[in-house]
Design goal:
The protein is α+β, with helices and mostly antiparallel strands. Helices cover about 25% and strands about 45% of the residues. The radius of gyration is 26 Å and the shape is elongated.
């Protein structure tokens, strides 16, 4: 896997509102680290929907469509443990007309999620899915198989950045760092998973080489808050 250069930044804050002892002289900082990595996984989410007037026929058609989709994915050499069906439903389909809801048949739907590591297979999978009636691609997003390791390494860099900044600040005022009083990783800032990572969606714009995807880079960003007690040099 190819790793791109690491970027590290820090942001100074005045003080934390709830230190163990507010009377202690201290310095408080944010430390931020960013790691960029080339993705090696593509996470897909597709929706399968069937609609009809008779519930038995809709259920049967939907079952066949889901089975056809799963068979196609296995033919693409996608391991079974990387394929998951979810959100299965069978319900009445209603339309609102003339100030009332009118039942016009039944809907069956299933979400199929799967992960591919053979990125060049994107084109074959895309075209194969497009031939199956009732399928829509809800999304395809880049990811990395080294996500946990990268988050751990980036966290260490964030802590180092925070300490370096605090040392510079303390030394400027004729002080030096003692023990840390608080170390925190704000939950709402963690960007090391699918919900926080800046993942780039698949693009359908062909590139110069004729490919229709551009993986780019995934950015994993970690920020920590650290407060150090300071003493005279």
């Amino acid at each position: 896997m190819k790793f791109l250069p690491l970027c590290v930044g820090v942001l100074l804050v005045s003080a934390f509102p709830a230190l163990a002892d507010d009377d202690l002289p201290h310095v408080s900082v944010f430390g931020t680290a960013v790691t960029q990595v080339e993705p090696d996984l593509l996470r897909w989410s597709i929706g399968i929907e069937n609609r009809g007037a008779e519930i038995e026929l809709v259920a049967s058609e939907h079952t066949n469509t889901v089975a056809l989709t799963l068979r196609f994915l296995r033919e693409q050499k996608i391991p079974s443990e990387r394929i998951q069906t979810s959100q299965m439903s069978l319900s009445e389909h209603r339309e609102y007309r003339n100030n009332s809801w009118i039942m016009e048949g039944y809907d069956a739907s299933t979400t199929v999620s799967f992960v591919t590591s053979d990125l060049p297979s994107y084109r074959a999978i895309w075209h194969g899915l497009s031939k199956i009636k009732g399928i829509s691609v809800n999304g395809a997003h880049w990811d990395t198989s080294k996500r946990i390791e990268l988050r751990d390494a980036t966290r260490v860099d964030a802590l180092k950045a925070a300490k370096a900044k605090a040392e510079t600040m303390a030394a400027t005022l004729g002080m030096k760092l003692a023990e840390p009083l608080m170390i925190e990783e704000p939950v709402n800032f963690i960007q090391g998973d699918l919900h926080g990572n800046r993942l780039q969606s698949v693009t359908s714009t062909p590139g110069e080489d004729g490919e229709s995807v551009a993986p780019g880079a995934i950015e994993i960003r970690i920020r920590v808050r650290v407060s150090f007690r300071i003493v005279a040099q």
